[in-house]
Structures are given as C-alpha cells and as structure tokens.
Amino acid sequence: MKPKEVLALIREKEVQAVDLRFMDFPGIWQHFTIPAEELTEQVFEEGLGFDGSSIRGWQAINESDMLVLPQAETAFLDPFTAIPTVTMICNIQDPLTREDYTRDPRNIARKAVNYMKSLGIADVAYFGPEPEFFIFDSIRYDQTQHSGYYFIDSVEGAWNTGREKELDGSPNLGYKLRYKEGYFPVPPLDSQQDLRNEMMVIMNQCGLQVERQHHEVATGGQAEIDMRFADLVTMADNVLKYKYIVKNVAKRHGKTATFMPKPLFMDNGSGMHVHTSLWKNERNLFAGSGYAGLSDIAMHAIGGLLKHAPALCAICNPTTNSYRRLVPGYEAPVNLAYSRRNRSAAIRIPVYSPSPKAKRLEYRCPDPSCNPYLAFAAMLMAMLDGIQNKIHPGEPLDKDIYDLSPEELKEVPKTPGSLDEALKALRQDHQFLLKGDVFTPDVIDTWIWYKTEKEFDAVRLRPHPYEFALYYDI
Hints:
By secondary structure, this protein is α+β, with helices and mostly antiparallel strands. The protein has 14 helices and 18 strands. It has helices at about 5-10, 40-45, 105-120, 195-205, 230-250, 295-305, 310-315, 320-325, 370-390, 405-410, 420-430, 430-435, 440-460, 465-470, and strands at about 15-25, 30-35, 50, 65-70, 75, 85-95, 125-135, 140-145, 150-155, 210-215, 220-225, 230, 255-260, 270-280, 285, 340, 345-350, 360-365. The strands form three sheets. Strands 7, 10, 11, 12, 13, 14, 15, 16, 17 and 18 form a ten-stranded mixed sheet that branches. Helix 4 (about 195-205) packs across helix 5. The longest helix has 21 residues, at about 230-250. The model has no long low-confidence stretch (mean pLDDT about 95).
C-alpha cells in the first residue's frame, strides 16, 4: 500500500482516527493518535514530532525531539477501536539530521537486511516465529518494600480440580488439563478453542497469514498460533500485530494473555521457536545435498548461530524470567547443538517436506518476551558471520540429549543460566553485531546498561517469596 492508497482507504471506510505506532527499546509497542484529516501525503515524507525522552532506553531530555514517519505498507484497520481507525507502524528519525534513529529497533532490523544485501550473500531473509503464550482468567501481583506476591488462576488449571465451584460460581465440572498434558486435547479439556479461533480470524483480517492454532503443552491455558513466514522486517511487524490481537481478544472476553516465558512453576514455559532461511534470486540457499538436505551455506549459518548463541540469548531471551524457562526437563533447548527432528537441540532441521523450498533452520532458544526486530536482526548477523567465516558447527547430535551420560553431557555447550550471564556473553562477543553499523556500540552499551540496572539488579536485590519458606526459621 502506498500513501495515496492509505488516504483512499481512509475515505472509503470513513476512518476517523489514525494510530501511529513504534517500538520502544526493550520491546513494547507505543502509540499516539491523530484525527484522520490530519494525515496527508506530506506527513509520510516529513513525519510528526514527539518527545523521545520519555521512551524507555532512548535519548536524554536535552535531545528529546524526534520524528515518526508512518510506513504506508503497514496500514491496517484496527479491529478493537470504538471509531474506525487506521493503524500504521512508523520509523523514527532525528528531526535535525533526518537520519534514522540508531536506537529505533525497526531501523536496526532494516539495517541488518541492507547489510545482508550489500554482502551479496542473499537478497531476502525469511523468518517464521512460533510465539507461545498463556491465557489466564485472572492475575494479581504486587511488589513493595515489605511484601511480594503473584496469584494466577485459570478455569482449566490442574490446581483447580478440587474446587467446589468454577471461577464463575457454577459447579466444578472437572476437565482440567494435567501438567504437561495440554498438547492437542479436544474440548471440553481444551477450553479456549473458540477464543483462539477468534484470534486467528482477526489476525487474517489484519493481514497476517495464519497456518494453524492449537493448545500448547502446559496446563492453565497455554496456546500457540502459527503464522506463515515473511521477510525479516515484515515478520517483526507481524509479531507486534500478533501480540496486540492476542491480548485484546483475551481482554474482550474477560481474560488476560501474557507472553512471559515462565509464568507457571513445574510446567512448560512459552518459547518462540524461529524458522529461518536465506534466499537469493528466488532460490533457497539453505537447500543442498549435505546433512538433512542442507547446503554448506546452511551449515555455516548453523555454525554462526551456535558460536554466538550465548550472546544472542541477551537479545533473544532478554528477561530474568527467560531463564526460568531455559532449564532442563521442560523441552527447553539449554544444550547448544543441532539435529534433524530432535527437539531437544537448540537448532532443529525440520524434515516435514523433501522440497528444497522447505529447507530451513529452527532456532529454538528465543522466547516471546524478546523485541522481534532486535532478535531477528541479531540472528541474521550471527548467520552472516558464520557464512562469511565458514564456521562449521561440528557433528550433529541425533539422539535424545537427556539420555546422554553425565560425561557426554558435559561436552555439550550450554545456554547461559541467567540474564546476567547472557549480558556478560554479549559484552564479550558483539563484534559480529557491529558489522555494517547494524548494531552500534551505543545500542549495545545501552542495552546492557538497561537490562542490568532496570531488570537483573532490580530482581537480584529483592527478597524472593520462596526464600521465606526456605530460611525464615533459621
């Protein structure tokens, strides 16, 4: 869609408001709204000003003026507003230099793609993430100087088998999902079929191409809706639409959705496995005659991902909660290896189809708390580094990693055990991200500072509720 087509859509649908959105540094969508008549072709070229100093991780108040430039190709009719509204995703620019802002996550993603093209290796990078999430019936949490707690509830939670009445006051009819047994049961055990169908339909209406939806492994309302792959920037845009739709459909039905990686103890967490492949002249560069039907380029891309995986975790698994998920025993890929079919490896090569067009890698470490622009860009930079330097990933691990002996398991590299470890890995290994000025030193430094001070230290310094159970009577 071009600017004139957006303006024509506004007239055709009698749109009254235009919502302009962009991504803050950690990864939350931000927005402001203008009357539809204020949007002109000039706005697409010149942008609109706003105060950038209030956006998390962005520049100081003495350099706060910034511009949003609406991107016409991202326009869609918002399905949740009371009045007809067109929503567009924006790029961010400095108003004085008119240069793209280095800390704008979408700009970083665009630069990664341009860098790839400048190398002549590929002309498109496809990404197909699988974000998982939970839909709960209620959530309460608080943290003060003298208290801290959270309470989660779900009508299908295994912990509710003994209730006399359901959450809505009706008799308890059972049909609760046992822990780790939520994968694919039909209703009434699957209590959210209609809810996910509504999400799926609205996603399609908003321009996403949904392939399937289903209940996920955990009890308490874990879900997954899979999208058709797209180029890097488009897919990052789509992940934001996806989250927006999931949360608002859930709220419409009096429920709440979260993309936290590990909200429930002793059950599976939510990952975001990412399928990826590189193409040139409409040919899949990952298809070949080697292991699992892969090319040398694909093997080197695997080598790059595995080599830089600890640093990538700081961006692809960027919360303290991410490392509650990245633990053995819950299908999480804590061991840095690759394999065809084997889902216990960090990188899996799917073998559903023998078609060269279907050849791809599935990087299983990321989770849906990440900023998709930064995560996909970092993954691409790691793959390009592997291809440029012909990094071989070693031998595949075509057996259940958890059946290995302790001696064998020690030889398999591991993901970091905490956000702090991941940030230290990023501090030591980020040169591959700086190539082509994709991630600037300022971006890396700010990311490490923000995640350390605002998140890791903030959690580290607070007493944990379970510490009272362990230590209060000492």
